[in-house]
Amino acid sequence: MEQEDYLETIYNLAHEQSLVRISDVAKILKLSKPSVTQMMQRLEKEGCVVYKPYLPLQLTNKGKRIGKKVAERHKYLSEFFTILGIDHRTQEKDIHGIEHSLSEKTLKELKKVSDFLKKNRYKS
Fold it and tell me: What is the C-alpha to C-alpha distance for residues 106 and 111, in angstroms, rounded to an integer?
């Protein structure tokens, strides 16, 4: 599991609920609480989260920026794969494999293609 996955998860959860806890992240990522705690300690040292035991997690500005970037990549890849008729389970597996290595240029072009296909009501 990459650091970006944790930041994306916290970013998304923060938009769905008022407090984000270690247990919330562990549940979504299907990891143990100690594993998530260990990563939060690392992400705090890197200036991405504010972590204090037993308190809700908070993203720093740096963490929000990274979380938002990964969430947007995920969203655009998901939209594109949905247009292509790829089932959700396969999408999630494929997206996880490419979302961290996709260049900004490729993402920009993917958005254009996706928008074009949606505008023209493409159905696979």
Answer: 9
Residues 86 and 48 in one domain: no
Say what the pTM is. Answer: 0.86
Q: Is 38 a member of any domain?
A: yes
Better-scored residue on pLDDT, 121 or 99: 99
Structure tokens at 90: 């396969």
Contact between 99 and 65 under an 8 Å Cβ cutoff? The reply is no
d(CA 21, CA 86): 32
- 7 and 56 share one domain: yes
Q: Same domain, yes or no, for 77 and 110? A: yes
pLDDT in tens, 39-53: 999 999 999 999 999
Residue 99: pLDDT band with limits 50, 70, 90? confident
Q: CA torsion angle for 48, 50, 52, 56 (degrees, to 10)?
A: -110
Does 74 share its domain with 57? Answer: no
The enclosing domain of 51 has a CATH number of 1.10.10.10
Closest CA to 116 of 83, 88, 87, 94: 83
